[in-house]
Amino acid sequence: MGEEAKEVKIKYLYNTPEDLKQYFVNGVYGGRTPQGDIVCTFYFEHSLLPEEDEMVFRGGKPVLEASNLSNLRLQRDFKVGLIMSPDQAKNIGMWMIKLVDGDFKPTESKTDE
C-alpha cells in the first residue's frame, strides 16, 4: 500500500546586512563554465560624457546634427557577477518572466524544487 506524503513546514529567516548593495542593471554578459554552471555578469550601459562639447545654434535654438550621433560611445560598467547551477538559473529565469508578465505575485523565487 502507498504511504501518504508527510507534510513538512520550513521557516526561512532573512538577514539583511547593513552594507547590502543594490544596483541598477540593463544588461548581462555570460555563459557556461567548463563544469556547466551558469555565469552572469550584470552591467549598466551608458553613454560616456564628453570632455568638451560644441553646439550650433540657429535662431536661438540648438541644431542637432546627425554627426553628433555617429560618434556615440557607450560604456558597460560591470556591477556584479553571479555563478549558479543550470537548475537555479532556469528557476530564477522563469520567476523573472512570470513577474514581468504579471502572472506571479509573491516576491521570491521558489528554487528548491
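The record above closes out task 2.4. Task 2.5 opens with a second protein, given below.
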Amino acid sequence: MTIDEALIQLRLGPGINEDVSEEYNDAVDMAIEALIQLRDQTEWIPISKETPKENGYYLTTNMFKEVYCDYWGGISFERTETVIAWMPLPAPFKPQESEDKE
C-alpha cells in the first residue's frame, strides 16, 4: 500500500459517529497529517519542473542513479551538473526524553 492509498483508506474510515471515540478520530487526523508530511518530504522533485526556493543543502540524484548531498546556490547545484531530481534533507535526529536521561 502506498502513502496515498493509506490516506484514502484513513479518510474513508469509520469517521465521526457514536461507535468511535473522539480520541480515535483525533488519532486518525494526526495520522493523516503525518502521512501527508512524510509523503511531501520523501518525493523526488524533477529539476525540470522545480528548483529549490532557498539556497542550502539538498539530496540530489543524477542520471546514473547516484545520490548525493549537494549545495544549491540559486542557479545550480555545486557538485554535479547531471542532477535530474532533488529533495529536502530530512529533519535532524532528536533524541526522546528517555534517551537523554540514560
